[in-house]
Amino acid sequence: MSLKTIYTIILFLSITTFAYGQTNKDISLNGIWIPENIEWERIPCDDGENFTFGCFETFYITDSAFMAISTSNTLLPKCDSILFYTEHGFYKMRGNIANIKNDSLFLEYKVYDERIVKMPGTDTIIPNKIYKDFIIYSPPSSFLYKGEKYIRTNKFVPKSQLKIKSFFKESLKP
Known about the structure:
By secondary structure, this protein is an alpha+beta fold. It has one domain (27-171). The protein has two helices and ten strands, in the order H-E-E-E-E-E-E-E-E-E-E-H. A hairpin with a 2-residue loop joins strand 9 (142-145) and strand 10 (148-153). The N and C termini lie far apart (63 Å).
């Protein structure tokens, strides 16, 4: 075997090992995630403008932990931003994420309800029960959760981003 062939084999093995390591270890979901397709509802206001809102789950993920809050949020079309709310009934779920395959992540979480609301896909909330689910990561910027595609976003106004992060920090307290 020639020296050139040996170098070619070593290079090939190095590249495939590096690529495999990247897909398996470097999944980073850190940040704020919202559904890609939100059904915004528009209500006309007295001043001729529209009040636009949508109800959806907002995920905040950091390292191997996550929190999701189901709330009603307002679209601010003039500045292409979202205002985060926690009014009119909401729930929080918090848990851990574990990588089980290259693109599948296991969720284990509890629901910490502030108000009793119906969770999507369930009949009732059972506070402090451990729920288990999966998300399917689609590199580089989306994941599927319960059949819905979520995307990383920075569309929340800065004050709303701080509110989401403070809810997460608050939920870590015993």
